[in-house]
Write a structure and sequence with these properties.
Elements lengths: L13 H7 L26 E5 L4 H6 L6 H13 L6 E5 L6 E3 L5 E3 L4 H18 L3 E5 L1 H8 L5 H4 L4 E2 L6 E5 L2 H6 L3 H24 L1
Parallel strand pairs: 1-2, 1-5, 5-7
Antiparallel strand pairs: 3-4, 6-7
């Protein structure tokens, strides 16, 4: 898999990256997706939230976290006092990977490690431009992409760790889509909020320090 590196314009800011990503052919995911879905938010954001990949609604609308999982994330951010307008949200891969059921329904498929690695130059470019103080990883794919393949959400969620190769720290938690699939949604949501509160308190301490 060739990877996205040759498609990422060097030294580009977010507008230039957002335009260039639509021409990316670094892996085969672009073939079936409606469009590439780049990150959204301010270049001056102190916090970056990284998920796995765009979902069905994100693929259709061209923006990250605008579907049911995004609404779950928004609810939790409000609860811990984080303004979504003050964060930058993105995904490890920029195209939606899916299978089709009978009819028109598109079912999410987890991107492979090779696909995540191929798309990594886009995420690195976003982190370079935004230069956040804290990165919140949502789900195992994002956490292992940024914190290493040995990272385990089940054991290390909610812990503040250093972000390799960046002058920032990181916190990992479950992806909000996992809450939507859970039998005990309320319990999982409470745990999710507790992890986000760690991120919010860490960000506040970095600002005061």
């Amino acid at each position: 898999m060739p990877g996205a590196e040759e498609f990422v314009p060097p030294r580009a800011r977010l507008p230039g990256l957002r335009e260039a990503v639509q021409s990316c052919r670094g892996c085969d995911l672009y073939r079936d997706a409606t469009q590439a879905v780049f990150g959204a938010g301010r270049e001056s954001a102190r916090m970056v939230i990284v998920g796995e990949q765009p979902g069905d609604q994100e693929d259709r609308q061209g923006a990250p976290f605008v579907g049911p999982a995004g609404r779950m994330l928004d609810r939790a951010l409000v609860e811990v006092g984080i303004d979504r307008d003050d964060v930058y949200v993105t995904n490890t891969t920029k195209h939606f990977k899916f299978d089709r059921e009978r009819g028109k329904r598109r079912i999410h498929r987890k991107p492979s490690r090779a696909e995540v690695a191929a798309c990594r130059p886009w995420l690195d470019a976003e982190l370079r431009v935004v230069a956040p103080e804290l990165v919140l990883c949502l789900g195992a794919t994002a956490a292992q992409a940024l914190l290493g393949p040995s990272f385990r959400i089940t054991k290390q969620r909610g812990q503040v760790v250093d972000l390799p190769d960046h002058d920032a720290c990181a916190v990992a938690t479950i992806h909000p889509s996992a809450i939507l699939r859970a039998e005990d949604r309320e319990s999982m949501y409470r745990g999710f909020v507790a992890d986000l509160r760690v991120a919010a308190e860490t960000l506040a301490s970095l600002q005061s320090g």
